[in-house]
Amino acid sequence: MIRRKFAKVGLAAVAAVSALTLAACSSNGGGSSTETTAGGNGGDGDLIKVGFSQLGAESGWRTANTESVKASLTKENGIDLIFVDAQQKQENQIKALRDFIAQDVDIIAFSPVIETGWDEVLQEIKDAEIPVVLVDRTVDTTVEDPYVTWIGADFRLEGEMAGEWVKENYPDAKIFELQGTLGSGAQVDREEGFDAVVGADKIIGKATGNFTRAEGKTAVEAALQAYPDMDLIFAHNDDMGLGAIEAIEAAGKKPGEDIIIVTVDAVRDGLQALHDGKFNFVVECNPVFGDQIVDLVKKVYAGEEVPKETIVVDATFDQSITQEEIDARLY
Amino acid sequence: MTAPTELARRVVHHKLFWPVVALLVLLLAAGVRSPGFLSVTVQDGHLFGQVIDIMRGAATPLLLALGMALVIATGGIDLSVGAVMAISLAVSLQFLDNSATADQPSTAVVAVLLGVAVALVLGAFNGFMVTVLGIQPFIATMILMVAGRGIAMLITKGQITTTTSPPFKTIGSGFFLGLPMPVIIAAVAFVVVVIVVRRTALGMLLESIGINREAARLAGVRSRNVTWFAYAASGLLAGLAGIVYGAPTMAADANNIGLMKEMDAILCVVLGGTSLMGGKFYLGGTVVGALILTTIERVVIIFHIPSQTTPLFKAIVIIAVCIAQSPVLLRRLDLRRLRRASRRRAELASQEVPA
Asked: Would you state the pLDDT for residue B165?
């Protein structure tokens, strides 16, 4: 009941409790699979009720992201999480968002499965005065001020970081670029960032591998024939890079020596390939930012000023990575 | 008319003439553009080369298209093959993941049988909907096309199941007699289907149903059982395709495995000269169709065509083949040729008169 009033009165009124909630803030990095705390209009009035709509489980990255959200948005951290998986369908996600409104959550967080088509439901959320935190992806909508803040990775920066390394270590490389699913944010921005840094003249060819290992392999098989002088592959994700390894080995060449491989993501399989000397450089696309979401949620709930964008910090790895670091990887 | 020109005419008029020409043109063009494209070498005891890669890539669409051709012959369609791929792979990998002896060949065999059996059941379910309940094939199979991915998600619990099992992986990335395993599997499947369908009356029965279901029934064809068989076979082959496709990566990605593959399969069948109206079907043609499809995807990279325009290139090749195969166009050309021939005969006759 108390919470219901808070939501109606608005953010300003809850500023007073900010100190209290912030005191409870601690970044819970570890912990394996915390169970979802579904529904329940129980009496735990001091918890922030967050409705989180995840878009699905389309990749290992997403799974790690989900784990991180579930591990961080816990009762111990002062959050009552309602987690709904949309299984990559927008209608599921819209339904989940409407359910959140009906359940009168304090904050709605979601990773939109696509950019458009959110006008109506975002307006409903706005009318219900529930603040929205966008995670990882963005929306394209006519609703004014549709969300309070966005948190996610800067794909362009990832591309630039990969480009900087290539420029420094292999300035004369003949590069083949293995693109992600065409038109996806990760593909467009990583390509833009990378190409801008290394220079378009260094890139002798591009083809898409749809972010999958199988299609990455097929593309590289053909590329080895089409661009015999290529000596560096930049793959927009680890999976395609792993596919490239298979294709290069099948052609009797040594990945990591004859052909340098640079990728983005840093999932465990990718880092293992790096440790085995088959990848040369990996830029992280960090999915484990549940703790940062908790911080944001608390600030938003408290009505504090938050930046419009929060960029998740990405690390980079080269072949000096140790087996311990890989084993410690959550995903 | 002399014998050689008669032979040439028959070759040109063969259903497979234009698809084969398209395939050869694509391959030769790629060979000219990139020397060495057509060469095949022996490496570590097995064949290696772009052409071998294309054959391996064509295995999955071919497996799907074989079943699809049978279904299309009855005048039906099976939209669920892509989803069935996802389900069979999910079943197999989930089984391996829960098994303690995933590295044993026997476990891998059980996993394959399990996945294919589930696919067979799904195919039989499609057949049940179409034959017993009389639901239109488009709608009946669309149910699984939409719901199938949900089933696959249930099996993988919404995650991407990844596991390791060397013997299972061999199905996708191994070699047998110097050829990639998927090529062998697709070839065996092709031979089996050809024997079952063409060495018995089954193929004729399928065609008779597609041409006129009621007439076939009145003539004593058990159209229900035969149609049911076609859908079950399509399901089984789709299940096999899912396992062959997913085995190299060993990742059951319920959302993406087999996505839009039903369209590829239909395309292979149509490129192979089979009409979507049902009736006559050409299994040899589907092989050519599958090879064309895979070759197109490969040559766009060889031609340095940006991936953004790949669909356009694909469309142009397919439209060209379809136009060349168009029965209306062929009849027009034939008529013109006949008219010209008769005119020439008339001229010859008029010249001969004064002499």
From this structure: 87
Domain ranges for chain A, please list them.
2-152+287-313, 155-285
Q: What CATH number does the domain containing B81 carry?
A: 1.10.3470
Q: Are A28 and A81 in contact (CB under 8 A)?
A: no
- What is the pLDDT, as a whole number, of residue B354? 56
Write out the residue range of the structural domain in which residue B83 sits: 18-38+45-338
Judge: A225–B36 Cβ closer than 8 Å, yes or no: yes
**Cβ–Cβ of A212/B253 closer than 8 Å?**
yes
Pairwise CB contact (< 8 Å): A60 & B53: no
The residue of chain A with its CA nearest to that of B173 is A246
- Please, is B324 exposed, middle or buried when counting C-beta atoms within 10 Å of its C-beta (0-12, 13-18, 19+)? middle
**A91-123 pLDDT, tens per residue?**
889 999 999 999 999 999 998 888 888 889 999
Task: Count the domains in chain B.
Answer: 1
Question: Using one digit for the tens of pLDDT, what is the confidence trace for A250-303?
Answer: 888 999 999 999 999 888 888 999 999 999 999 998 888 888 899 889 988 888
B222: left (phi over 0), alpha (psi -120 to 50) or beta: beta
| Domain A2-152+287-313 identical in fold to domain A155-285 | yes
The CATH number of the domain covering residues in A155-285: 3.40.50.2300
Q: Is A58 close to B255, i.e. CB distance below 8 A?
A: yes
What mean pLDDT do residues A130-157 have?
88
Interface predicted TM-score (ipTM) of this complex, two decimals = 0.79
Looking at beta carbons, which residues of chain B come within 8 Å of A219? Answer: 301
Q: Which fold has domain A2-152+287-313?
A: Rossmann fold (3.40.50)
**Edge-to-edge strands of the sheet including A107-110?**
A79-85, A48-54, A107-110, A132-135, A149-152, A309-311
